[in-house]
Amino acid sequence: MANEVIKFRCYYCSQHIRAFREHIGQSIACPSCGSMITVPRESSVQEEEEELVVSRKFTDEELTLIRREGSGAYEAFIGGAVRDYWQFTLVADLLGKRLLPLQATVLDIMRKQEVYERDVVTHTQFVQFINEKSEEFFGLLYLLADRMTNELERVLYQDDLNTIIAFANQLGIILGRLKDFHDSIYQKPLPTVYPYPELQGILKSWAPFCWQNMKNVIEELKHLGVRKQTDSSWKRVQMSFSPPTLHQFYYHKLQLPEAEPDLF
Ligand SMILES: [Zn+2]
């Protein structure tokens, strides 16, 4: 794989070292004992053990690319260069930026719901609407959970800026679609009888919950970039994006009458 890092041992002091592929064949000073050693072509160490990292050198192209992401990302990128896990710091900063639309959604949950008017929206249409919307909603939550639990790990261990930015953008698109979902639920006039107001309340609760989870993950990634913890420390963060009241949601949804087919 083109972007993996090289993990090996110092020939003199046996320190575990992680170097980027750009260092292959170069003489570098061991970050532990200072002896000059040559970075091998292949990794020779697989086990999880504390490693020291040979500082990353960034190309002009990469610097230009990351400048376009904003000054915060640039600071994180450059700051991360002298630390062990520059990817962790950068991903945290990029995800923080992509998360912002969701903050607006969290602030929005106090907005007054549109009220159902019999002449405008029929009951059947609303049943169809809520069924379709909830399907879309859970699809998006599943995507988000999948990216964060499976993709994030793969992305973090690649020494490739484009991969990391693409990942953050992908997450941003999912979060944007979740925000659209939220808006569409609000803009639809809502019947005032059971179970609609209850359903509405449950659907609302996902946004603060999801926001807090993402914030926790971002904070943990930032800390890892500084604290030199082991690679897998971030996995301790609880990642769950489903609303805490999922059971209630299905209970209420099952009370909805069957939607009748459109006669037109
Ligand atoms: Zn050494």
Number of helices: 9
Bound ions, cofactors and other small molecules, one mention each: zinc ion
Note poorly predicted spans.
none
Q: Determine the oligomeric state from the structure.
A: single chain
Strand content: 5-15%
Counting helices, strands and paired strands, the structural category is: mainly alpha
Query: What is the helix fraction of residues, given as a range?
Result: 40-55%
Mean pLDDT: 82
Number of strands: 5
Q: What name does the CATH topology of the largest domain carry?
A: A middle domain of Talin 1
Shape: elongated
> What top-tier CATH class of the largest domain fits best?
Mainly Alpha
Task: Put the structure in a nutshell.
The protein is 54% helix and 6% strand.
Describe this entry's structure for a reader:
With 264 residues, the protein is mainly alpha-helical. It folds into 2 domains: 5-82, no CATH class; 86-253, Up-down Bundle (A middle domain of Talin 1). Strands 1-2-5 form a 3-stranded mixed β-sheet, with no helix packed on it. It is 54% helix and 6% strand. It contains 9 helices and 5 strands. The protein starts with 5 loop residues before the first strand and ends in a 10-residue tail after the last helix. The mean pLDDT is 82. The longest helix has 34 residues, at 123-156. It has helices at residues 60-68, 71-81, 86-98, 100-108, 123-156, 161-187, 196-204, 206-227, 246-254, and strands at residues 6-9, 16-19, 27-29, 36-38, 52-53. The protein binds zinc ion. Zinc ion (ZN) binds at residues 10, 12-13, 15, 30, 32-33, 35.
